[in-house]
Amino acid sequence: MKDQYDLIVIGSGPAGEKAAVKAAYHGYSVAVVEKNTRFGGAGTNTGTLPSKTLKETALYYSGFYEKGLFGVDKELERSANAQDFFFRKNQVVDSQEEGIEKNFRLHGIDTFHGAGKLLGPNKAGITGKDNCELNGKFILVATGSYPFQPEGIPFDGCYVHDSDTILQINRIPKSIVIVGAGVIGCEYATIFSVMGSNVKLVNSREEILTFLDREICHALQDQMKEDGVDFIFGNRVEDVAILPEEHEHNVHAKLTNGEPLQADMFLYAAGRSGCSAGLGLEEVGVELGKRGTIVVDQSYRTAVPSVFAVGDIIGFPSLASTGMDQGRVAVTHMFGLHEIEKISEHFPYGIYTIPEVSVFGITEDEAIEQEIPHVIGRAKYTDMPRGKIMGVDEGLLKIIVEKHTRTILGVHIFGKIATELIHYGMSLVENRETLSDVISRVYNTPTLHELYKYAAYNALIEGHYLDKPTGH
């Protein structure tokens, strides 16, 4: 260990890890400071990987995609308890954390455990297991975000949870109220409903996931209703109270319209804030934005030239995928490397609900608002041979196509492994490929990738480029 480095990274989540490794790969000395005992940040420990693993676990224990598929429903010898539910999640988290630590060792990166704080433009202090001061040519802040906890809600980590503590429950609730119909709220609503919980999803707006194409959004919402999620729109929750264990429902709350809510558990999943408190940022001249975020320029440099910031701490889009590349790009600008100098302005969204949703490019509403002459192509999972084999009874791939040039402008998918299928659609949009490009290619059959070809043919028909078929 030493006290002089080319780069000091505060935070070992996806953004911090990838930045540290890239700098070390190019021969620069790097120190990583992590306040928690485990590496990986929210991406590994409380967010991305745990929640997605729980989704797969819920599918396994519920037999969601296998019900009736082979003539008999899958039956478990015993019902799943919380220990079963979290078993695989814990394995994945442990394996990923070990992989991150190994990656640091492989690249000769020094690691320090403790709370980091900027003592100057080129100095950081560490308080905790490792008490010391480090000097660095550059400092990168990648401390991530934490769940927003509004006043008046008695978060106790037992009955009333945020998106961190919900991963530590010791039982699967019979009923749960979830506040917030964004990505996190919708993901957990589908997970718990599939596991048999009675789920009420409360949202102040009149619909979920407002950034999605409306047709795809409504398809997801309809499926969630079919799976037992009860939507309460245009309301907020107030006066949340925890009752003693002898009561039938441990959490009692009231909606803004006066209606009571009762459930075994309560999850508040509406917003996150940047982990910037206590870092000494403003003292050294770093500008802060809303909810504790850090203001940066296009190179991820703050108002202090030697200090950069990436990942959730800088706000939107707050995705692990974008944070990783932000970290890599920041290192490029720090050391003048002749590599990728900015990440793409456009990126896919993956929503790990049951079923999944993933999108890239413009929506149908955006095409209308921008007065782009367009046609729509659709293909259903149930019409695909692979879909029939898999036994899925829902799923839709939708493409937005510029009418005159037949260029594909947007791809929107609702259904199983949508987050995997979207990347081919992303390539189509980025390369401005046409319907002819899609239908001229040979795809493995039976596969779900045939959805693209069928959607392209459907767009050709809807755009009156082809006569409508009279049969199959």
From TrEMBL:
GO CC annotation terms, alphabetical: cytosol
Any GO MF annotation of the entry: dihydrolipoyl dehydrogenase (NADH) activity
Cofactor (UniProt): FAD
Matching PANTHER family: DISULFIDE OXIDOREDUCTASE, SOLUBLE PYRIDINE NUCLEOTIDE TRANSHYDROGENASE
Pyridine nucleotide-disulphide oxidoreductase dimerisation domain ranges (all copies): 348-455
Binding site for NAD(+): G180, A181, G182, V183, I184, G185, C186, E187, G271
Cofactor binding, note field: Binds 1 FAD per subunit.
Annotated keywords: Cytoplasm, FAD, Flavoprotein, NAD, NADP, Nucleotide-binding, Oxidoreductase
EC number: 1.6.1.1
Domain FAD/NAD(P)-binding residue range list: 5-327
GO terms, biological process: 2-oxoglutarate metabolic process
Subcellular location, record wording: Cytoplasm
Xref: InterPro entries: Class-I_Pyr_Nuc-Dis_Oxidored (IPR050151), FAD/NAD-bd_sf (IPR036188), FAD/NAD-binding_dom (IPR023753), FAD/NAD-linked_Rdtase_dimer_sf (IPR016156), Pyr_nuc-diS_OxRdtase (IPR001100), Pyr_nucl-diS_OxRdtase_dimer (IPR004099)
Function, as annotated: Conversion of NADPH, generated by peripheral catabolic pathways, to NADH, which can enter the respiratory chain for energy generation.
Residues the entry annotates as binding FAD: K52, G116, T143, G144, S145, D312
Protein's name according to its UniProt entry: Soluble pyridine nucleotide transhydrogenase
Family, per entry: Belongs to the class-I pyridine nucleotide-disulfide oxidoreductase family.
